[in-house]
Amino acid sequence: MTGVEVKVEGLSKSFGRANIWSDVTLTLPPGEVSVLLGPSGTGKSVFLKTLIGLLKPERGSIVIHDTDLVRCSEARLYELRKLFGVLFQDGALFGSMTLFDNIAFPLREHTSKSESEIRDIVDEKMALVGLTGDERKLPGEISGGMRKRAGLARALVLDPEIVLFDEPDSGLDPVRTAYLNQLIIDLNAQTDATFLIVTHDINTAQTVPDNIGMLYRKHLAMFGPREVLLTSEEPVVAQFLNGRRQGPIGMSEEKDTAQAAREMEEAGELEGLPPLKPQLQPSPGVGERRAVARRRDRVLQMLHTLPPAAQQAIRESYEDDPLPYEPPTGPIRQPGLPPKRTAGMGFAAPGATDVIEGYDPGYDATPSVRPSPSSRPRWRRR
């Protein structure tokens, strides 16, 4: 399987009069790993359910393979859902079925494969997630981590082009979460599928993704290369990444500006962002992630549009891998999109257009035109 681009434009979702989020626009690059962060109750899981068509948005579009999932027929939506694999928070396994039958269920439900073919596929997926030999166990007989891996094997059994992870670290201790994070990277290297992870785990957000988005105040405050959020000086980012009480995020809802300012003044000097950690690499023998080269070209094309701290972090990440050409200097916008109205660094008052100044939260999907090696100018590091 090979990853596919997912293009979301102006998506809005409400339940009755309660607005969950509005005007969400982002593009999941094909084959890359993206993470969606945000305070509890901001609608991250709702976003995943909307992506696969389980919930219908009031406005916007979700385009995959030139088809808008919001407006297509039920028959077409049924077919497109087969492109998705979903790992739910609790694994969502059938308690009365063995692990083998749980993982085989989508194949028996959606294909006409013979039992011998199903066995070969299930054995392959169980080996991928390290569950060989556990085929006859019931979900109640295994640990939470094993249930997560069984759910992941089931999510992969139809060879999806897009895999969604709804808080995969939920209920796991830090050690098992670290193992699961490594497994996600290894699976991405082996499948080249497009991954989107909803998580609250800061270590996962710091070490796993190529791209990070953040839902805040009913909007997508930012989405783009991981370095943008992980180097942002915004108070909500620093509060979230440090897991501290002082800042704009409250227990039940966002605090008003005056309350947040009082708390920050009372607290005095607080530490800034955690140190930028290196991204996880595939385990030895797994092979390289094909998305790495694609991301590198894409990020370098948009480098001049990113905040200075993010630019510096990207430069440092390529210190041992010289940049092949001079990054462009003109503005980059997605074709057909109007210029965006910015509001500071993306965390404006509710209702404002939440984007980083000078930074487009989408990406330019146009392949870069690269000169021949002999004529390539070298990018001069400062």
From TrEMBL:
Matches recorded under CDD domains: ABC_Org_Solvent_Resistant
A matching Pfam family: ABC_tran
The keyword Transport belongs to this UniProt entry's keyword annotation: yes
Residue span, ABC transporter domain: 6-242
Keywords recorded for this protein, A-Z: ATP-binding, Nucleotide-binding, Transport
PANTHER family recorded: INTERMEMBRANE PHOSPHOLIPID TRANSPORT SYSTEM ATP-BINDING PROTEIN MLAF, PROTEIN TRIGALACTOSYLDIACYLGLYCEROL 3, CHLOROPLASTIC
Protein name: Phospholipid/cholesterol/gamma-HCH transport system ATP-binding protein
Species, as recorded: Pseudonocardia kunmingensis
